[in-house]
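Good day; I would like, with your permission, to put a structural problem before you. What I wish to show you is a protein chain and, alongside it, a tokenised description of its three-dimensional fold. Here, with my thanks, is the record as I have it:
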Amino acid sequence: MQITDAFEDYLHYIQVVENKSLATVASYRNDLKEYLAFLDAHGFTAIEDVTYMDLQDFLKEQKVKKKTSSVNHMITSLRMFHRYLTMTYPKIPDATLHICSSKTAKKLPTYFNVADIERLLDSFQDSDMDIFHKALLEVLYGCGLRVSELTHLRLNMTHLEQGFLKVLGKGEKERMVPMHQRSVHALQQYLEFVRPQWVKQRSPFVFLNSRGQNISRQYVHNLIKSKLTALGLDERLSAHSFRHSFATHLLDGGADLRVVQELLGHADIATTQIYTHIQNKRLQDAYASFHPRSKEEDDHENI
């Protein structure tokens, strides 16, 4: 089977049959294009000629250029591609059968402390652009949304009088997320006074830029980066840190882990449990800094 045919066949399958999101399809496509370029450069035309050793050679190149997490993402893309081909065309062997992902140190999510998030959200003025940006970030933090969920939020998913949003998350799963009064007020201000001025033609999306276009994820990332710089905040924080902060602050306030799982739209509670590790790390740091017995141990070590 021609490599290009296998590539197109697989992309059609994940997009049409599996109904993967556009972002997921684009991610797999980008990884596989790199792989196909490698195979082409090494004279391969038929996918069944690719062996385990050829894959290893490709991954060696990847490990020189990329972080471990990016290489692991590539391995996942290759594994899904080759497994599909073997299942659909049994005569094509699975070259990824013995490929293993590299272990990565699990990093704890970055998040805002309460004082910094308050400072950021209170930094906006009364201009149309500031009203727009404040609404964006109030909803992002106040509802714990993914950036893609924020940019795809539709007017018919907002229920401001009742104080909640209907959110379409991963796998097209719907969830209901309550809104606190500040988020409701910020969004109302934008919808009543700014959006009507900017909309050029009917659009189902809540957040439109000043040209009347639906905002992109990159727009949100750029906005947050510029605010972090302007306020002198930790530039390791990101758009996703708002979601991490939402979860961390809820747990700090005494929320049940299962409730936080539901609000975040996590299918598996193990994904949500990462936030309990943040709490444990903070407790350990506080103990090491302030408990007199801990200080005594440090003093003895320094003798």
